[in-house]
Amino acid sequence: MQPSPDTRTRILATARELFHGRSYADVGVKEICAIANVPKGSFYHFFPSKQDLAMAVIDDMADDWAHGFVAEAFDRELPALERLDYMVDAAYYWQKAAKDIEGRMPGCLFGNLALEVSTRDDVLRAKLNAVFQKASARFHETLDEAVETGAMAPLNTGATAQAMLAFLEGVILLAKTRNDPDVVLELGPAIKTLRIELTVEN
Amino acid sequence: MQPSPDTRTRILATARELFHGRSYADVGVKEICAIANVPKGSFYHFFPSKQDLAMAVIDDMADDWAHGFVAEAFDRELPALERLDYMVDAAYYWQKAAKDIEGRMPGCLFGNLALEVSTRDDVLRAKLNAVFQKASARFHETLDEAVETGAMAPLNTGATAQAMLAFLEGVILLAKTRNDPDVVLELGPAIKTLRIELTVEN
């Protein structure tokens, strides 16, 4: 008998919560199996390695993220610059909700994993980099639209988009270090002041 | 016979390099002792726990940092805004030098540890928070001076200082995810565009 797809979902949900709330190295396959209540054999049926599991966790989170608050924040019905405010607010409410439940601000799963594994695992690093590139593309489109509609003076929209994503990750990092989501509310709105100018080619 | 202070230094240097190049959870006391060539007994003489070791590693790095490139970057002889450029350049050269040696961009030890341990260890979290507060105070003084000398229009210097530190951490995070120190050069200079305005009390 094949393990049911429901088992896979349970492993994934458990791993995602544990990796996010603690760290990748701190959580072992044995613990995930115990909490998800699945035998090790079923685990390895779905995920040949812990790295495979992490890849699936990243996909799962990125998918929820893309169809959840990121889709809402980057709604094309909103004026371009309001999308940036929305994104900051969404990050705040997300972290606050998690802290209200767990007592701990978990930060951004992608940022956490990126700093933890990037020097040791090029496969996971490439995966996380792709997630960041997608996120940065959302900022990029938004800035292009802001410039087209005259809401922003012309600037290097591609580089500024990356700077904005970096800022959001950095603000969440600082907030996590204080275990205080309010840091996101206090510093986050400055995202709109970031600018990288176009370089003039002669 | 007491273990020599040199033994302590060796443990510290080994742990710092391994924590920075990999992660806290990924490196065990056994491995540190093997590489530093010290018996476990000597290790526990100096560091009753791995947490104690991490505290000492953070102090050691923060000390080098404060007396090394941070002292140079925030040299009061430099015009205030040039200090911000210097800080970005220093972060770039630091990461580039590390990558040239190891093939990997290690990122910021403090940022790495903060995202890895903050949900699980309040003692280390408080320590890392104190390091960030000190770093943020350097930015704060610099911005106060920039405003006093008219190099910058008045702004909320305390909050903007924190936003700048967050940005620097975020830029290093993104650069580490790409294993590319050039990201720091490309995005970092936008640090000077960040602004949080003073709120007007009525």
Instruction: Enumerate the spans of chain A where pLDDT stays under 50 for 5 or more consecutive residues.
Output: none
CATH top level assignment of the largest domain in chain A: Mainly Alpha
Rg calculated over all Cα atoms of chain A: 19 Å
Indicate the CATH topology of the largest domain in chain A.
Answer: Tetracycline Repressor, domain 2
Largest sheet of chain A: none
Number of helices, counting only DSSP H or I runs of 4 residues or more of chain A: 10
> Strand percentage of chain A, roughly?
under 5%
Mean pLDDT of chain A: 95
Helix content estimate of chain A: over 70%
Quaternary organisation = homodimer
Number of strands of chain A: 0
**Number of spatially distinct domains of chain A:** 2
Give me the secondary-structure category of chain A: mainly alpha
Named CATH architecture of the largest domain in chain A: Orthogonal Bundle
Brief account:
By secondary structure, chain A is mainly α.
Can you tell me about this structure?
The structure is a homodimer of 202-residue chains. Chain A has 202 residues and is mostly helical. The first copy, chain A, has two domains: 1-50, Arc Repressor Mutant, subunit A (Orthogonal Bundle), CATH 1.10.10.60; 68-193, Tetracycline Repressor, domain 2 (Orthogonal Bundle), CATH 1.10.357.10. Helices cover 70% and strands 0% of the residues of chain A. Chain A has ten helices and no strands. The first copy, chain A, has helices at residues 5-21, 29-36, 40-46, 50-67, 69-73, 80-102, 109-117, 122-148, 157-178, 182-187. In chain A, helix 6 packs across helix 8 (122-148) and helix 7 (109-117) packs across helix 8 (122-148). The longest helix of chain A is centred in the last third of the chain and has 27 residues, at 122-148. The N and C termini of chain A lie far apart (69 Å). At the A-B interface, helix 7, helix 8, helix 9 and helix 10 of A face helix 7, helix 8, helix 9 and helix 10 of B.
